[in-house]
Amino acid sequence: MLFLLKLGKMFRKDKSGGNPGSGSSIFRLLPFVLIIPIFLFQALSLSGCTSTSPAIPSIYLVSLEPARSNLTTPTGIEIRINYFGICSDDGTTKRCISSAGGSGSTDAVTTTLFPTTPLNPNTTTTTSKNTSTAVTQSELKDLVSTALDLQSQIFISILAGSTFAFFVGLIFLFLYKRDLAKPNPSKPRRSALFRRATYGLIYLSVGLVFAAALATTETADALQFASRATDTPKILMHAGRTLQVLQWMAFGFSTLFALTVPVLVKPRAVGGVGFPKGGDV
């Protein structure tokens, strides 16, 4: 946050031309507002299913539940997975744990998510919902095993790479603007290096968040369809729409910010005279 404040102050200074608070200065500050929703949507997307805090369990890639022959009778048992977390719902209690990369054995994760059910393959557990049916411990272990496999082998956290690239890109943007404001004649290539790093990392972050949003949407929808296409499905899957919306919104705001970067680094006139040509993009 301190870094963002310093970055904003740098662009706010308009001693070289225009009065502070002028329409031009305000316009140049608007792109910084986009940084807040970008980090917000990406943080929410990455934190889904890591805790039972309000709304966090509702942010997930896919949910899994035991299937019944008619595909309409709910069991009351559900598991939701996200990039770094997994949640369970037995009809009465929601439990969430961190399981980055599908870490942890199936038995250990099953015991943590469903602690009231004995580890006996023939034991059944019945939820409190009136429409629920008995679920065996074997079914619970199959759910957990499938969820961990999906998390570690199918859904790779490309979004985390996008967040990292965007943050580092902002750092180089700060360095690039400072170098333009106080150029060092002894290091003429430094400004070009900062410029390339700024554009490269910010555009890379846009590409990665687009890849994450597209891959998640297509894969989750495909899993949902495939789980119902078989004659005797054992597990039903549902795509998490909230996460998809968050990731596409992150992509939209990231794209807008990337398009405004040329405006942010555009040289300002100094009493009718522009910056040196080296500051042009």
From TrEMBL:
GO terms for cellular component: membrane. It comes from the Eukaryota. The chain crosses the membrane at residues 154-176, 197-215, 245-265. Keywords: Membrane, Transmembrane, Transmembrane helix. InterPro entries: Dni1/Fig1. This is Ca2+ regulator and membrane fusion protein Fig1-domain-containing protein. It comes from Echria macrotheca.
